[in-house]
Write a structure and sequence with these properties.
By secondary structure, the chain is mainly α. The protein has two domains: about 100 residues, Alpha Horseshoe (Serine Threonine Protein Phosphatase 5, Tetratricopeptide repeat); about 100 residues, Alpha Horseshoe (Serine Threonine Protein Phosphatase 5, Tetratricopeptide repeat), CATH 1.25.40. About 70% of the residues lie in helices and about 0% in strands. Helix 9 runs antiparallel to helix 10.
């Protein structure tokens, strides 16, 4: 029903499911939180962000109580809550929720988990809406630098002396990387987002170069190196 935009019918079913789960499982069961979250998402799709927010907050409280404050599902709920607040212009709360989610994902799943990079992109997007370009750029740079270190085990400036005839970096065994190992969709998204930031600042040449790097990222591991070198050069000139 939700996918068909039959929101009234979907809402009726979810409210029925919520009542059943609360009665049979108790008000603080994770299944209740799941239904609350689904109902909040439904309200969000109808642009009823104010009505969705308390449902999302209650789902968060249940998951914190049942799973503990540092569980990845808590971070996922924080992401949803941040988005609802962002649509209401509550940017101070947005920043708090996203930063907490990043901290949970980093500690529970590790700094290279895709959820860390995705949530940093979400926070950067919120900064962009506030025209906080410096803060957004730093987050994008953090994501790309971490992806580069995961890929090559070195920062871009350390790679200049270890390239083969084709310009590609060697690994420890002397083999050339044929494909990129980092989470390419996230890297591509981050490059495109940073390109948008530069375009808003009137840095069109840098934006075009990053878009080119984004289009090459899946097949060319050097694209990420080129992007980071550009960012470093661009920062020194700005």
């Amino acid at each position: 029903y939700r996918d068909q935009s039959k929101f009234k019918e979907a809402s009726s079913l979810l409210n029925d499911a919520l009542a059943i789960r609360e009665k049979t499982l108790g008000p603080d069961h994770p299944a209740v939180a799941a239904t609350l979250n689904n109902l909040a998402v439904l309200y969000g799709k109808r642009n009823k962000f104010k009505e969705a927010e308390p449902l999302c907050k209650r789902a968060l409280e249940i998951r914190e109580k049942f799973l503990g404050p540092s569980h990845p599902d808590v971070a996922k709920q924080l992401n949803n809550l941040a988005l609802l607040c962002q649509n209401q212009g509550k940017y101070e709360e947005v920043e708090t929720y996203y930063k907490r989610a990043i901290d949970i994902y980093t500690k529970s799943l590790g700094p290279d988990d895709p959820n860390v990079a995705k949530t940093k992109n979400n926070l950067a997007s919120a900064y962009l809406k506030q025209q906080k370009y410096k803060e957004a750029e730093q987050l994008y740079k953090d994501v790309l630098t971490r992806a580069h270190e995961k890929e090559f085990g070195a920062s871009p400036q350390d790679l200049s002396s270890s390239t083969n005839a084709s310009g590609g970096p060697y690994d420890a065994q002397g083999g050339w990387y044929k494909t990129i190992r980092a989470d390419t969709p996230t890297v591509t998204t981050t490059l495109k987002n940073l390109s948008l930031l530069y375009r808003r600042q009137g840095r069109y040449e840098a934006a075009d170069t990053l878009e080119n790097c984004a289009s090459r990222a899946r097949k060319d591991p050097q694209a990420l190196t080129q992007a980071l070198q550009l960012i470093k050069q661009s920062n020194s000139l700005s």
